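We treat protein structure as text, and this decision shapes the records that our systems exchange. Such a record has a labelled line for the sequence and another for the backbone structure tokens. The record that follows is passed on verbatim for readers who wish to inspect the format:
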Amino acid sequence: MIKLIVGHKGSGKTKALIGMVNDALKTSKGNVVCVEKGDTLKFGLSYQARLIDIDHYAIKGFDAFYGFFAGLFAGNYDITEVFVDATFKVGGHDYEAFGVMIDKLVKLLNENGATMTFTVSCDKEDLPERVHQYII
């Protein structure tokens, strides 16, 4: 399952994401992973979350971003939730490429039953119509 938290900078997306991560840690029967650019979330998250700074992996663009997630799931079948902050800072502002990545992730997640939640800094109207169904 995919969830998108959409809004402009300063609209509370990251704060909502932090709350969702900490709530997931209370109920998850597997591993909870949080992917961010930089290390700004380390003080807001419980130590139980696996925090990944995407800058350590030189990921640029949504194809590479998808490959990173595919490898993450291939290496750890116990992941139940993945939370991603600052999506467009990593993938770029190519909204169509973002939609393609989401399409691929839906197929990947259907195979393992995990949930992924992304913060997305833009207007809903900027995103491809096919991903609007994932906006929460």
